[in-house]
Amino acid sequence: MNMEALNQKSLERVLSQKALQIGSSFPCQICVVGFLSGVCLTSLFLAALTSLGTFGFGGISFSAISLGNSPLNSSSSGFINTVTSADCKFKRKEISRERWVGSRRSENGVDDEKVSLLFSAWSALLSESVDGETAFWESAGLSKSAVPNAPHLERCELSEQINERLDKHSKNERLPPWTTWKGLLNTHPASMPAEQLRYFRHQAISEGAYPPWITGSDEENYPLTRKAQRDIWLHQHPENCRDPNIRFLVAEWERLPGFGIGAQLAGMCGLLAIAVNEKRVLVTSYYNRADHDGCKGSLRSSWSCYFFPETSQECRDHAFELMGNKEALERGIVTTKDNYTSKEIWTGRTPRVWGEPWRFLQPTTEINGSLVVSHRKMDRRWWRAQAIRYLMRFQTQYMCGLMNVARNAAFGKEVAKMVLTSLSNEWPKDFGNKRRSDIEEFVWSNNRPWIPRPLLSMHVRMGDKACEMKVVEFEGYMRLADRIRQRFPHLKSIWLSTEMQEVINNSKLYMNWDFYYTNVTRQVGNMTMATYEASLGRKTSTNYPLVNFLMATEADFFVGALGSTWCFLIDGMRNTGGKVMAGYLSVNKDRFW
């Protein structure tokens, strides 16, 4: 802030104080009483006239004047309250408020009660998918067929079915049907004949098809991302898992006290690197964070509760069979995490299968006002980005449902207003069970759920992280957000993730930003992350960070702290998700660079 702005604010404070002093003087009070008496008499006169018809001057109707358009802001509320509480019986007060609400609704084109009803209907549908039937429909007098499509919600069951096809070998092919048309288009009755489609797919595979979970071109991602993802999938999905030449690495997730989700993911990235280097198929076993009642049946205690498994079920079954075979263990056909040192897991050799693509990383990360051109751990940054993208390539129905609940809680009412604007004013009366058109069903089926764009994601890491990195206050993060906004002035929305309640409280001071965040209990005061997570319980302490993680990867911009493993991994997901050129503004650097 410059000196001229400071002087301006000081002048405003002085004028405000003078105004208060003048307002408390006796002559001024007499004037105010006289003024209020005049207002009362005038209002009675206007009431008498408007009882005969609409009263206006120059084509301006008083019933159309809205306090929302008035230059009076919250500082004038005392004045308004004084007027309405005067001794004169201003009985048109209620009518004026009704007209104000009516005017506001006509401007927005929606009814606040209908917005709440539609939002509640979407919430009820989500509750049913998670908790079973609800009593909402009877109490609201609403049928499910009258609920319009929710553009911010994903059809999770359908998405999982589509992705399952994209994660399995096609018949007599090395790769899944990655070359089919997107979404449900290849299921359209008029789509390409099966024989022609097989020929087209075979040609594309022979020329090199790339996985569908990568968004954007090579220039919009880390170097060789599409090829690396294709090769990792092939490595993890041999055509015959029982081939005697196939070897395995079976590893459970780290569960030492104090290990957060970020550390667990970084450790598994290291194990995947070992598996690639040793030409082994990585098979993950017990995942303590999925050991809760939200993960049902065989998905309990498994990574595949949240994301698709790292290899096929056939390979998993065979690997666990070999774990019970003493000879297989002795001959090294199957190894475990205990076969490797901590140094090999955490700082081991990055796979060189693709050469050294990290030497060509585009400098798009800024720290302290300068772009980071190179550092000592560029190979690890590239590899972890590839590994985390592969491990999180497809969400399960459970994870998809968690994202739906989070988006609905954050954006649901905003979306309801937009949807109702496009519908008839008679909704829900004239909204029957309308069949989806072909373009909705087949072409638009691949659209990502709506979020307010442009969206900035911000992860503020404080608390006990001070022992590992330089901790920066929330104001430091917001200065970086303001810098992005200077270049992109239409940016106004922030998805805020943090474990500190202090940060949430401070966000309310930034009135020119719209903040969204998950509704979860946060830390107050000094507390270790392990203690905090224990207070939330395993289910909540796993679900909400993963929601924040995926929201950060979807956002248009990101501000974080590269000294945090969590932010480091978010950066990796974004740089393999078509977001390289969005850049990354960090409040600090990784401690190993």
UniProtKB/TrEMBL annotation:
Example of a GO MF term: alpha-(1->6)-fucosyltransferase activity
GO biological process, one term: protein N-linked glycosylation
Highest taxon listed in the record's lineage: Eukaryota
PANTHER family in the cross-refs: ALPHA- 1,6 -FUCOSYLTRANSFERASE, ALPHA-(1,6)-FUCOSYLTRANSFERASE
Name of this chain's protein: Alpha-(1,6)-fucosyltransferase
Originating organism: Salix udensis
